């Protein structure tokens, strides 16, 4: 099996390259070969690689910056997945696409299920929802895996930011009224690998009998403040911390260009 992984140097993509390697030949082109902001580049890359499975781990994830760059965010998150779906169909390939808890507005008090109505409240969420809709409307064999609050040991994420700030500052104030489920990038990759392996071993066509939209997050829930507190308590390099005070604040005390859902736990 030939597997094309986009975003191969990102948090999830890096883990996918390792996890999927036993299942086939993994190719992970860089931006110069597969520019997600260009539909023509994405199309040409897929036609050249001729994969049996496309795993789209690439995304525009700068939530606040997306408010100023909506066209770029839409090109990467909304348009490119649809192009991938078209090309996957042409090749008879399957497609796995990752989405986000930010397609929901956060108005629920209990975890969101897959069939809950989407109502994004920022540009990032709007573009990710557009990507989901494009895949669902076009792809013949696909998985859409929604995840949330992704962290890992690579890239830019909350874990690495908090560890860095704890070494630089004596006081930090972290939002405590936004609730979600932090999810390790390796968990996402390992679960994806298990799903692919199971499908390849038990189904006539890869993802043929399990196509659909699924939620993929860690169990439990916490706030950004609670997450930060746990991360710092478990930091193996606590001796380097300068931090003396970890304060809890509400969303209104930390205004950002993009709105965030207050509750985005996925069931």
UniProtKB/TrEMBL annotation:
InterPro entries listed in its UniProt record: dTDP_dehydrorham_reduct (IPR005913), NAD(P)-bd_dom_sf (IPR036291), RmlD-like-bd (IPR029903)
Assigned keywords, A-Z: NADP, Oxidoreductase
Signal peptide: none
Gene3D superfamilies: NAD(P)-binding Rossmann-like Domain (3.40.50.720), UDP-galactose 4-epimerase, domain 1 (3.90.25.10)
Cofactor note: Binds 1 Mg(2+) ion per monomer.
Top-level taxon in the UniProt lineage: Bacteria
GO cellular component entries: cytosol
Pathway: Carbohydrate biosynthesis; dTDP-L-rhamnose biosynthesis
EC number in record: 1.1.1.133
Gene Ontology biological process: dTDP-rhamnose biosynthetic process; O antigen biosynthetic process
Family under the similarity heading: Belongs to the dTDP-4-dehydrorhamnose reductase family.
Function of the molecule: Catalyzes the reduction of dTDP-6-deoxy-L-lyxo-4-hexulose to yield dTDP-L-rhamnose.
Protein known as: dTDP-4-dehydrorhamnose reductase
Gene, per the UniProt record: rfbD
């Amino acid at each position: 099996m030939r597997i094309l992984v986009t975003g191969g140097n990102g948090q999830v993509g890096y883990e996918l390259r390792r996890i999927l390697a036993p299942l086939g030949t993994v190719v992970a082109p860089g931006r110069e070969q597969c520019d997600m902001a260009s539909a023509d580049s994405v199309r040409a890359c897929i036609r050249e690689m001729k994969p049996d499975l496309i795993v789209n781990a690439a995304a525009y994830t700068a939530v606040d910056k997306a408010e100023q760059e909506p066209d770029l965010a839409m090109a990467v998150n909304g348009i490119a997945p649809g192009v991938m779906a078209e090309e996957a169909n042409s090749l008879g390939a399957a497609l796995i696409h990752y989405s986000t808890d930010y397609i929901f507005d956060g108005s629920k008090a209990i975890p969101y299920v897959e069939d809950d109505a989407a109502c994004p409240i920022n540009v990032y969420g709007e573009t990710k929802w557009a990507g989901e809709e494009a895949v669902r409307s076009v792809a013949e064999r696909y998985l859409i895996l929604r995840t949330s609050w992704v962290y890992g040991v690579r890239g830019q994420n909350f874990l690495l930011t908090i560890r860095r700030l704890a070494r630089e500052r004596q006081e930090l104030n972290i939002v405590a009224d936004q609730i979600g489920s932090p999810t390790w990038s390796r968990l996402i990759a390992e679960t994806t690998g298990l799903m692919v392996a199971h499908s390849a071993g038990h189904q006539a066509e890869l993802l043929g009998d399990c196509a659909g939209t699924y939620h993929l997050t860690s169990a439990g829930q916490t706030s950004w403040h609670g997450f930060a507190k746990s991360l710092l308590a478990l930091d193996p390099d606590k001796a380097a911390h300068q931090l003396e005070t970890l304060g809890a604040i509400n969303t209104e005390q930390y205004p950002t260009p993009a709105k965030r859902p207050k509750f985005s736990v996925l069931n």
